[in-house]
Design goal:
CATH class: Mainly Beta
Protein name: Acyltransferase
GO molecular function: acyltransferase activity
Order of helices and strands: EEEEEEEEEEEEEEE
Number of helices: 0
Strand order of the largest sheet: 3-6-9-12-14-15
Pfam family, one: Hexapep_2
Radius of gyration: 13 Å
Keywords: Acyltransferase, Transferase
Organism: Sphingomonas longa
Distance between the termini: 33 Å
Helix content: under 10%
């Protein structure tokens, strides 16, 4: 886990399985009742730059009662809404609305959560 100086990591309740990697260079918020599968990656900053470009960062916000499957990657500037589910192996590159199941690379809407 990496938390940069002046960054904010906020952890609610729930559980995180083994081998999770959280890179917090700006702001990462995990809500209450969140279930996180093994080998999760949360990255809120590129932490690198290509020649002639600058790095960019964006907060990651994970709502309450979210389930993140095994090997999910969540990238900068994304929000996972309350009660959402992200399928195993998915890469989240944009906001996931509350109460929806998303999956794939990149993650996309599959169906509403029952």
């Amino acid at each position: 886990m990496t938390i940069a100086e002046n960054a904010t990591l906020s952890l609610g309740s729930g559980y995180i399985n083994g081998d999770a990697s959280i890179s917090c260079f700006l702001n990462v918020r995990i809500g209450h009742g969140v279930a996180i599968g093994p080998e999760l990656m949360l990255i809120d900053d590129d932490r690198h730059q290509l020649s002639g470009t600058s790095t960019s960062a964006g907060p990651i916000n994970i709502g309450d009662h979210v389930w993140l499957g095994s090997r999910v990657t969540i990238l900068k500037g994304t929000t996972i809404g309350d009660g959402a589910v992200v399928a195993a192996g998915s890469v989240v590159t944009r906001d996931v609305p509350a109460g929806e199941l998303w999956g794939g690379v990149p993650a996309r809407f599959i169906r509403a959560v029952a």
